[in-house]
Every structure is written in structure tokens, then in C-alpha cells.
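Quick one, probably user error.
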């Protein structure tokens, strides 16, 4: 009997996730993101086969005119769920996030596309690097399963310098989707929690790889400029503008100020 679509168990901007058959889920892409199906299936399959802790890929299917990827099911909360529910404090979330990211970067996946080559097609020049670049690594993309943390959402995966992926995580943790239209008290609570996660994450990562500070300013500039283009109304757009323009003295976030050159 062919698998049947079960209940929806999650959703994001590009896709919805449904129960599929036993031990599997279907990430069903929205029609406007159909172009990303093969890329994520290829990248997620490559990193899983290389030994990265992430769900296995079990093929691409079509349901009611929409295509999706069948993944191994990993049950458990995300690190973000645990933070929001108070099951882990922000500093612990940051430390766990760093530990998972550090382990991910130890795995070689030569089959991934090269980030430098990808941006060269747009007229940009980036340094090359061999590290697995997830591109959207944050607490919402780490599931805490029975066998340990598992990283999901590999559509942006490339090979790149280590600092490139770390600075993209800085953007995702501290600034991405930080809405300025929420009540002031709620905004300040969210900003504070994000800052505490970031501080613990960066402290752990710099302790493990002190040399990331050598090209931190370059990659922060790239990551901040990219996020600012996508989210010009960010609640902390001032920090993003300062980072994108290299005006380090104007950056408000203490975790970044202590690492940036004067």
C-alpha cells in the first residue's frame, strides 16, 4: 500500500511537514519553492551519507501537484522549542548550538557545491573553503531527538570557509526575523534572549577555533548586508547597517563588539 499523507506536524516559509509512513515525514514544498526540491534532497542526502547527524533522505514524491522530500522522522523538540518553553536557559541553548555546529564542521562532504563559485556567477568574489556551510543554522533547525541533536533544512548547503557559516548563524540567532512591530517589552525580552544565546554560542566557538576572528569582519559584512536586503525593517536594522558598512563602533550588540576590530 502506498504511503498516505498524515497530519501536518510543522511548517515554514517554503514548505509544510506532514507525517508520511512509519518512521518518516514528508517535507512538502509550496509551489513557489518547487525549484528547491532537488537541491535540498541532494545536499541533505550528501551530508547524511557523510556522517552528519541529520535525517536520511528517502526520495522525492508528488502529492496533489506539489513535490516534496521524504525524510527519516526525528521526534523531539527543537532547541528553539526548549528555549521558548523554558526547558533550557538561553546560555545552555547557545552552548549546545555551538557543540552541534562544531561537530558538523568536522565532517568532510566534498560533493557539496562551492559557495565561492556560486557567488562568482553574481559577480562577487569570496574566499574558498572546505567546511560544510549549512547557511541557516539556528536553534529552530536543530531537533533534540532520542539519539541526540539532528540538524534539518539543508537547502542552502555549500562548502565554504568556517567563519562564513558561523557569521550566517550570528545573523540567524541575533537578528533574523526580529520584528519591530511587537510590544516594546516583548521585543526587549526576545532581544535579550537572543543576545544571551549568541554570547554563549560565540564564546564556545571562538574557544574552539580562535582563528575565526581573523576574517570575522569580512564575513559579518557579507552576512549583514544579505540580511539587511531581505529584512530592511528589522528591529535592529541599525546594527545590520553598521555591520554591512564596516562601522564597527556603531554596533550595539556586545557579543560582536568585543570581537570586532576597533
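Nope, works fine. Designed sequence:
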Amino acid at each position: 500500500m502506498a504511503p498516505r499523507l498524515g497530519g501536518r506536524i510543522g511548517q515554514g516559509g517554503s514548505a509544510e511537514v506532514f507525517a508520511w509512513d512509519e518512521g518518516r515525514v514528508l517535507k512538502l514544498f509550496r509551489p513557489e519553492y518547487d525549484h528547491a526540491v532537488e537541491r535540498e534532497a541532494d545536499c541533505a542526502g550528501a551530508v547524511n551519507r557523510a556522517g552528519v547527524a541529520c535525517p536520511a533522505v528517502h526520495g522525492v514524491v508528488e502529492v496533489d501537484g506539489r513535490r516534496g522530500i521524504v525524510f527519516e522522522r526525528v521526534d523531539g523538540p527543537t532547541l528553539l522549542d526548549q528555549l521558548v518553553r523554558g526547558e533550557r536557559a538561553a546560555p545552555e541553548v547557545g552552548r549546545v548550538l555551538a557543540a552541534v555546529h562544531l561537530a558538523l564542521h568536522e565532517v568532510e562532504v566534498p560533493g557539496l557545491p562551492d559557495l565561492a563559485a556560486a557567488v562568482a556567477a553574481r559577480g562577487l568574489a569570496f574566499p574558498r573553503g572546505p567546511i560544510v556551510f549549512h547557511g541557516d543554522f539556528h536553534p529552530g533547525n536543530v531537533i533534540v531527538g532520542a539519539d541526540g541533536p539532528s540538524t534539518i533544512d539543508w537547502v542552502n548547503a555549500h562548502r565554504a570557509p568556517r567563519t562564513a557559516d558561523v557569521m550566517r548563524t550570528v545573523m540567524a540567532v541575533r537578528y533574523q526575523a526580529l520584528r519591530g512591530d511587537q510590544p516594546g517589552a516583548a521585543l526587549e525580552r526576545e532581544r535579550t534572549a537572543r543576545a544571551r544565546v549568541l554570547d554563549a554560542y560565540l564564546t564556545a566557538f571562538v574557544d574552539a577555533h580562535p582563528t575565526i576572528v581573523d576574517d570575522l569582519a569580512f564575513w559579518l559584512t557579507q552576512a549583514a548586508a544579505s540580511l539587511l536586503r531581505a529584512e530592511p525593517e528589522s528591529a535592529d536594522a541599525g546594527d545590520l547597517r553598521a555591520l554591512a558598512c564596516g562601522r564597527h563602533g556603531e554596533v550595539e550588540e556586545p557579543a560582536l563588539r568585543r570581537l570586532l576590530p576597533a
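The chain has nine helices and nine strands.
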